[in-house]
Amino acid sequence: MLDVARHFQPVSYLRRYVDLLALHKLNVFHLHLTDDQGWRMPVAAHPRLTEIGGHRAESMIGPSRSTRYDGTPHGGAYTAAELRELVAYAAARGVTVVPEIEMPGHVRAALAAYPELGNDPGRTLDVWTRWGVCENTLGVSDHVLDFFRTVLDETMEIFPSEHVHIGGDECPTTEWERSPAALDRVRREGLAGPGALHPWFMQRMTDHLVRAGRRPVAWAETGTTLPEECTVMSWREPAHAWAAARRGQHVVFADHRATYFDYAREEGDPGLLAQSGLVVDLPAVHGLDLTPPGDGAAAADRVLGASGQLWTELVATPAHIEYLVYPRLCALADRVWGGAGDYADFTARLDGHRTRLDALEVPHARPPFATAA
Fold first, then answer.
1. Is 170 tagged catalytic?
2. Angle made by CA atoms 260, 264, 269, in degrees to the nearest 5
3. Model pTM greater than 0.90?
4. What are the DSSP calls for 143-186, one per residue?
5. Are residues 312 and 247 in contact, defined by beta-carbon separation less than 8 angstroms?
6. What pLDDT does residue 63 have?
7. Average pLDDT, the chain
8. Which residue is catalytic, options 153, 154, 170, 177?
């Protein structure tokens, strides 16, 4: 998964990214197209999503998530033709591009473009310049549902992939708790409370995709059960994956402690802009635990695979992307295709593979830029 919502990358670079995935026999390119800080997906019916939502005034900087900003506007969006060409380019290399449209949280860029989608339609918001979890969420009126059905329809026209990702993570209920329209929806639908609007919303979008013959994918969240038709991506806890598999859902492992490549590669990685809090080193990635628990063996056939994630709040350039992704993605490919193996054997083979990465000018060994102390 590559996040192009936080920092936009041109489609020319996405083709190189696909080439590197294909080299490692990774067959799905999950493209995170929308978030609070940018909307990159073209939607002809709603052009302001990219015209306004595709641009922010500046970006927060610093690995400590301080309130410093760079003062530099950032923006970009793809055309439908560019994305169709990318889909075809990837397919020719055995890679399926899976789009992600975030909802009902992580939607500040959409709300900046169309305030009427929110819980306070008279409020004017900007495309978010901060990182983290924004409390602004979609409203739950019928016109909001119809708007996002249209977004999904246009997404499916461009991306023929069986799976379509609809986000679903980190969705605060604060605005729903104080919105008369949201509380009215709770009453009319007979829901237990504002918190139940999240699964209700996700079910509406899931139903739309299923009717179109697609398979929805969503992030697992603590305390929330996704619609049974959803493929579950478990990023917080492996237990979420096995719980979903026991319920009969397909799952993709995305444990942040082993597959989030925006975390530092090693202890003391000096001054490199990476997410703070964890170190995800090569042993952690290669040791990704895909072993079913004692009561989960019967559900193991519902595991579709595992995914590596590169969130780009602090990652603006292709060279920085590749330094954080490689060689950790090599370890993930070895783990998911080769099974649990000997780490020493992997590192011995990796030594030879690094020559290939060098030939492709992948900055896998050292930061490709000067780092501050």
1. yes
2. 165
3. yes
4. HHHHHHHHHHHHHHHH---SEEE----S---HHHHH-HHHHHHH
5. no
6. 59
7. 94
8. 170
